[in-house]
Predict the structure.
Amino acid sequence: MRRTSSIVSGLWWHEWQFNTALAYGAQGLLYFLYRGNAEYGYGAPIDELGQRGPLFYQMKRQHTYFRKYWEARYQTFQPTRTTHYPHAPKGCGVFDGAGVVKEIEFDAGHSDVLIGEFLDDQARPHVMVVNNSTERHV
């Protein structure tokens, strides 16, 4: 994977982790302090000296947005199915059209997606589709 900047790729990497965790039905997220390694595109939200970096503020924006617009609804969800399209990691479900989403059609150049299916407290179906590419941010 080609990375242009450790800060940009670190922001993207955490966004990907956040969204895929939600699609799998995560009920909480845990972050920890670590020293960043720019070679692999990671940066620390808070460094070893307690200083907040760009990644901290991006994560804060992402969490604030989620809490404002989606948290109340998401808390009523029970995950029912999670699949991958068109490729699935070993041990994960491949999309087969047997859930709420029956068919997927992409234009050329599409990315892998993760489809999380849920039922809310009134048994209504909900779907979360996430870019699951670890190679590009689309």
Residues 6-23 form the longest helix (18 residues). The CA atoms of residues 45 and 55 lie 5 Å apart. The helical segments are 6-23, 54-69, 71-74.
